[in-house]
């Protein structure tokens, strides 16, 4: 009975990031000390989106509370190839001593899959798993994860349009009401890539009695869906702070740049997980003035 020295999956050219419709090519390496009988050596490629979280519920009586679980899963694909032997074999195939390389090739679907993602309440994962099935003994397994990026074409017309908004707020302090604070903000377009900067144009008018300091922040919202319920997580990334605006003054931003760091791409085509980004321009006031 041979012994297994090496059992691993290696991608061609060291590549581990793929786009939809691309070929995932590589080899399964088996290195044996002595001959080994086996039924089959297979490799599988799988893609799965999964969410899970818990919520505490009160029973309204002496029994106290209980925990409710929310789960959902989508299998994007499950493909397999036999590299050696047969799925219906009797285990008499013999793989001889030494190093063997079994090449494989899978094609990713051209659509219907989402960008890889890891979050607190869910994930979108893709991986390869090699299984060596032997007669009358335990099987060997090797696993290798890879990343899928589903790019969004930010040159489409819908992502080239500016985004704008305005607001007005009146501050109250005890029995006194000050004048309004107003702002108008606009981005140069709607779609961006990591490493780019968002150009923000804004007009601020401070008719209150307090000093305000405007700032802009890039926010990420992760939404997880299961059982008719949702769970969200919010994160803040880059922030840019403007100069203080004294009472009765105005100020403008002319293409104030907000740098986008290396963040997870937006996910808009998965029914279990969604990742969105937004720029928030705020005008908090200084309570000391």
The chain-level mean pLDDT equals 90
**Poorly predicted runs of 5 or more residues:** none
Say how many strands there are: 20
Distance between the termini: 83 Å
InterPro entries: Arrestin-like_C (IPR014752), Arrestin-like_N (IPR011021), Arrestin_C-like (IPR011022), Arrestin_domain-protein (IPR050357), Ig_E-set (IPR014756)
Protein name: Arrestin domain-containing protein 3
Family: Belongs to the arrestin family.
Domain Arrestin C-terminal-like: 177-285
Q: Concise description?
A:
With 289 residues, the protein is an all-beta fold.
Question: What are the key terms here?
Answer:
single chain; 63% strand; 289 residues
Question: How would you sum up this structure, described in words?
Answer:
1% of the residues lie in helices and 63% in strands. It has one helix at 157-160; strands spanning 3-11, 17-18, 23-33, 36-38, 40-58, 65-85, 93-95, 98-107, 117-118, 122-133, 140-148, 163-173, 176-187, 197-206, 211-212, 215-226, 229-241, 250-259, 273-282, 285-286. Strands 2, 5, 6, 9, 10 and 11 form a 6-stranded mixed beta sheet that branches. Strands 12-13-14-18 form a 4-stranded antiparallel beta sheet, with no helix packed on it. The protein has a 3-stranded antiparallel beta sheet with strand order 1-3-8, with no helix packed on it. The chain is elongated and about 90 Å long. The model has no long low-confidence stretch (mean pLDDT 90).
